[in-house]
Specification:
Layout (H helix, E strand, L loop, with lengths): L4 H14 L11 E5 L5 E6 L8 H6 L11 E6 L11 H8 L3 E6 L9 H7 L3 E4 L3 H7 L1 H9 L3 E9 L17 H11 L4 E5 H7 L6 E2 L2 E2 L5 E5 L18 E3 L4 H10 L4 E6 L1 H9 L5 E7 L24 E9 L2 E8 L17
Parallel strand pairs: 3-4, 4-5, 6-12, 6-13, 7-10, 7-12, 10-11
Antiparallel strand pairs: 1-2, 1-3, 8-9, 13-15, 14-15
Helix pairs in contact: 3-4
Length: 352
């Protein structure tokens, strides 16, 4: 049975509801319960770890028996396991729901399989409605499920000859205002922004996401990596979020801890030593290279040693997009051998 127009509208609304939930260790999920004649009976979304999932949140607003024969429209396949909450598939079955429309399969080994359980109980199930929009909403969480760590973007700005700064160390500004505005927009899409102590000491960055002088609504959590102390009056201490400091040079240790904190996406802002360390460790899911049509010469390269000793060891990238930004060019790429979509169920247990 194909998805009808009422169900499609309900999915659009469910995605809006899902976006109200926090990003963290659990996915953002929304749900709408429709009566047999298409009337919206209830709606809900996941409010955070340990709280009822979206389907149960919606069902809780109905009187017993009110969902009998109803359709549940959900942005993620109803879960099939017991964590801090019970299986949503069972909750829907027990409520008497006769049809479920969802966007994305749950990638978890333990939490997935809800659709099969629903079908086994005689519930009509339709998957894939507005899957692309749902994937875009929880892309960071899906990456975390597949890889067991946040999605990592490594960004740098460089001259046409690959330099990140002039011979005297000055680097503001290699790129123009359009490129800098694009960086701030992309910062605001990340959960955390990461720099090394060298960048903090040299540039004293605020690590905020701004539109001109105004702060954008979403601010990434600032993260500083390195053993040198950050001055007490550094701009990062005035960030809207308390900064996280890691006295280590191990990118994997940092990303593991950020993952445990529920951070789904991180933006590596600089400088060359830190960007190179993440790339050398295989911790770059996406590269953003902002290239300015200027020549600087010298030895202040945008990247340093990334473990490539010969041309045969080169890290090959696949370019996803070329984006003109005023006089500059943004290259968006990913490692050529990296999978681009989480189509298989992960070994993680999924949402709790």
């Amino acid at each position: 049975m194909a998805v009808n127009g009422t169900e499609r509208e309900a999915m659009t609304h469910a995605l809006e509801l899902a976006a109200r939930g926090p990003r963290g260790v659990n996915p953002q999920v929304g749900a709408v319960i429709l009566s047999p004649d298409g009337e919206v009976l209830a709606e809900g979304w996941h409010h955070g770890a340990g709280t009822p999932h979206a389907e149960v949140d919606a069902l809780s607003k109905l009187a017993p028996g009110a969902a009998k024969g109803a359709t549940a429209v959900v942005t993620l396949e109803p879960c099939n396991h017991t964590g801090r909450t019970g299986p949503c598939a069972v909750a829907l079955i027990e409520a008497g729901v006769s049809r479920v429309v969802y966007a994305l399969d749950d990638p978890g080994v333990a939490s997935g399989g809800g659709a099969e359980r629903l079908r086994g109980a005689g519930v009509s199930v339709e998957a894939g409605e507005q899957a692309d929009a749902a994937h875009a909403l929880i892309d960071g969480w899906l990456t975390a499920q597949r890889l067991g760590r946040p999605h990592i973007t490594v960004k740098w700005a460089q001259s046409l000859d690959g330099r990140a700064a002039a011979a005297d160390g000055s680097s503001q500004w290699i790129t123009g205002p359009a490129a800098r505005a694009d960086v701030h927009r992309r910062r605001a899409e990340a959960d955390a922004i990461v720099v090394g102590t060298g960048t903090v000491l040299a540039d004293d960055p605020a690590l905020t996401a701004r539109d001109g002088d105004a702060l954008l609504p979403h601010q990434p959590i600032p993260v500083v990596i390195g053993s040198r102390p950050t001055p007490a009056d550094a701009a990062v201490h005035r960030h809207p979020h308390a900064p996280l400091f890691y006295d280590t040079h191990d990118p994997a240790a940092v990303t593991a801890d950020l993952h445990q904190r529920g951070i789904q996406s991180i933006f590596i802002e600089g400088g060359p030593t830190l960007a190179s360390a993440f790339i050398a460790a295989g911790l770059a899911d996406r590269v953003l290279a902002y290239i300015a049509p200027v020549l600087l010469g010298g030895d202040r390269l945008a990247l340093t040693d990334i473990g490539v000793g010969s041309i045969g060891e080169a890290l090959r990238l696949t370019v996803d997009e070329w984006v003109p930004l005023g006089a500059d060019l943004l290259v968006i790429a990913h490692p050529a051998d990296a999978p681009r979509s989480p189509n298989t169920r992960s070994q993680n247990e999924g949402a709790a």
